[in-house]
Amino acid sequence: MPAPLYLSLSAVLFALGTVGVLVRRSALIVFMSVELMLNAVNLTFVTFARLRGGVDGQVLVFFVLVVAAAEVVIGLAIIVNIFRARETVDVDDVDLLRG
Amino acid sequence: MTYAVWIPLLPLLGWVANGVAGGRWGRRGVATVACGTVVAAFAVGLAVLASLSSLPAGARHVEIDLYRWMAAGPITVPMRLLVDPLSAVMVLVVTGVGALIHIYSAGYMADDDAFARYFAYLNLFTASMLTLVLAGNLVVMFIGWEGVGLCSYLLIAFWFTRPAAAAAGVKAFIVTRLGDVGFLLGIFLAFGVFGTADFGVMTRDAAARLPLGGTAATALCLLLFLGACGKSAQLPLYMWLPDAMEGPTPVSALIHAATMVTAGVFMIVRMHAVYLRAPLAMDVVAVTGAVTAIFAAASALVEPDLKRVLAYSTISQLGYMFLAVGVGAWGAGIFHLTSHAFFEALLFLAAGSVMHALGGTTDMRRMGGLARPLPWTAATFGIGALALAGIPPFAGFFSKDQILSAAFHRGDVALWAVGLAAAGLTAVYIVRAFVLTFLTPAGPGPRPDRRGPTTPQREPAAGHAAPHEAPPIMGLPIQALAALTVLGGALGLSFTQPGALDRFLAPVVAAGGPDPAGGGEGTLIAVSVTVALAGVAAGWLIYGTGTLRGSSAAVRAWLSHQFYVEDFFNAVVAAPARGLAWAFDLLDREGVDGAVMSIGRMIGWGGGRLRRVQSGYLRQYAAILLIGVIVLLAYWVSR
Fold it and tell me: Which of B144, B116, B408 is closest to B264 using CA atoms?
């Protein structure tokens, strides 16, 4: 498959993730959308790594995966705690820092 | 002679001790510490006098450098004390009279709640005054100068719950401050002219550095004299002293009669070498003194309040001292300072004894016939009154006569005549005070007065059944001062050559006694004694027997308003100052405060707008983030 297709797929995934973050109200879905955006970026890294024949991009993907894993751990913990405290995971209801 | 340091240090230690722990060791302990330190300082002063006398006359100038206080470029100011005959005499006057008044206070203030505070202030005052007289340069003198001013304020307003006392304290502080500005400028000018403010250097170099009658010398002398005017209550800055009588009577005796108010005279004598270079300034000093002498004496004629009569007499006698130094009779000035310290303190303490007996009354219209219940007080007050009036053989006669004849021999016949007239008035008003207080039957009470009740009293021990003599702790100091008043004339007892005090002061200043070659001394004395006796007789005829009657209402109004000097000042100085204060108040509240407040309001309003950005909606933040990224990308791409 030629590189433009990979990149197009990656762009579509990223756009889907962005829209998910912006329109969905459930914290879990928002979270999953963020993961989608990260993985779209990973796909771009790998594509360009193959294209240029280097391994830098592939190494970076591992970093992103590790960071994403850590982020998921913390994020899910926060979501669980919010749910315990407020019986909801709707991001619009959690507005304690409203100015 | 380094131990002279202990003279100001001892009362200072007494201040610290009584100020820190005075509440804890009881009244007896407080009084012992306070009186003990001053008596000890007097003893050190006697030792200094003895070792000074053992030196040859030319070497009686000992400088004690404690440490280098400040150094800036070519100017260094050491913390320097100067021991010479002049400062020795002043130390003995301050500590001697001061010790007697401290002891008297122990009785007078015995019932006051703030006993320790009173004695702490009194000791601090003594320490400051001793610093002033022992100072080796103008800057050190300024420490003492301001220190006594501060203590004067604190002690006038000692009974600060009384509004009149608090106001009088503030008035004294502010009015003397006007003069202190001049004094401070004078110090700067001295640094400019001499490069130093050291008394020894200035005395030595005055002739070389200052051309006779030059602008620098005249300006320097007049600026310093302005400070002296404020401190010594001379025209036009006199008006704080009568009000200062709100303080406890021993304070009036110590600060406002015997010591602090004479600081101006002492300072001029200390700077006499500079003053000799400015004949114009000396004329100003002499004329101011003479005018003040007769002005205050006239004001005292109609004053109904005993203590205020004595305040005017102090102002008047200070006028004589300035007349003396203004005509170059330095020794006579110091002599009158000394004898005045004796008899004026005596008069004040006797007046305090009267107030003690009457439960705090100072209004002479409510007194009378006190000679019978208070024989000792009446006798001692009488001695002081005769000395004040200039009747021989009391101390006041000798010193006042020396001043008058010095003025006469210098050719200032007009000043001599004014001084003589003031002497006559002095005799009249002090006889009036004596008669109204001790002889005539008690009056019906005060008539309505423009000031209302002159001094609403909170003096100690109100409510005595019958007037009675004060306890010995108050009586003995009065009697000691009476003895000094009787014998003090011996210090200057000499008609044809300089007296003992003049001879002692000779290494510092030229003898100021009568000029031996002048001649006619006997006639002058006869004239001044005649005038004094005439004054006494007139006072007796007017107030004692009522033979002489008649006074014009206009004259009475002029006198009881002190020639409207104070009203003039209120209109010309105080009213514009109040207007200016009002304008600045307005400017401050509306202008400065307004600007600051509106800046604050603006920031608050802006914050109120900005807080809407923090909506608390996660998705809105994400959208803003996205928009930002898009904008940045668009920028980079389009570049």
Answer: B144
